Amino acid sequence: MALAFAGFAIISPAHAEETKPLKALLITGGCCHDYAAQKDILKKGIEARGNIIVDQMHTDNTTVKPDLPIYGVPEYANGYDVVIHDECAAGINEDAVVKGVLAPHKAGTPGVNLHCAMHSYRIGKPSEKVVEFGTPHSQWFEYLGLQSSGHGPKKPIEVVYTDKEHPITQGLEDWKTGNEELYNNITIFDTAHTLSKGTQDGNEAVVTWTNDYRGTKVFNTTLGHFNETVADARYLDLVTRGLLWACGKMDEKGVIAEGYGPPEK
């Protein structure tokens, strides 16, 4: 099945599974990244690792204000179990638009946020520390659970899992990326839980974490700038496990719920 509107494609493969697959909406496009390739890398990698259908909402617009059709449409995630934000929309900062992007998550739809999603939808000065929730400046950071304003050079990052007992991290090992960007941490909120930290040129920052957004599960990683990282099996394992956890398809020991593991071949 393929759905298309206003030049944006949503593509759904057919799955013959006894268990109803999760439906994930993957949003890509915007500045500074090879989203044309990464959208397909993510779709293929996630669907190979879980009983998940990944629908793609993509724009080839490469500005900081990508013309994604979710803007002004707060019901954009209707029918989906989870939204994967992988857009780079640093110039989208209108309060009403940001509220609309957040609407499904406020209503309980889990979120997965990758790389430049952390630097999108920021109202006001990104480096100005959030001191309280409820302001336009705070709303996207509250959803993420962490405030970031910039990144370091494009160099390898040493990734260490700091919570090896969390369901998501079960079976995952520390690793070193190829060239990547280490996003800074202005504030890590009490609702967030750190899963891994990264070190680059002596600087350390949280790179993977979960967040409790008003009762909604959210998974985040700042990794994923280059195609080589996105295509790395260790990255795809992490993102898929984060998605399954956010959707409640993983127990406390990290065991994936029956029927939601890799599809049979």
CATH homologous superfamily identity: Class I glutamine amidotransferase (GATase) domain
Which class in CATH terms? Alpha Beta
Compute the average pLDDT.
93
Helix content range:
10-25%
Task: Kindly state the number of beta strands.
Answer: 13
In brief:
This protein has a single domain, classed as Class I glutamine amidotransferase (GATase) domain (Rossmann fold). The chain has 5 helices and 13 strands. The protein has helices spanning about 35-50, 95-105, 140-145, 225-230, 235-245; strands at about 1-5, 10, 20-30, 50-60, 80-90, 110-115, 145, 150-160, 175-185, 185-190, 190-200, 205-215, 215-220.
Model description:
This protein is α/β, with parallel strands linked by helices. It has a single domain (2-246), classed as Rossmann fold (3-Layer(aba) Sandwich). 19% of the residues lie in helices and 32% in strands. It has five helices and 13 strands. A nine-stranded mixed beta sheet has the order 4-3-5-6-13-12-11-8-9. It has a two-stranded antiparallel sheet with strand order 1-2. The protein has a two-stranded antiparallel sheet with strand order 7-10. Strand 5, helix 2 (95-106) and strand 6 form a beta-alpha-beta unit. Helix 1 (35-49) packs across helix 5 (233-246). The radius of gyration is 17 Å and the shape is globular. Mean pLDDT is 93; it is low at 1-17.
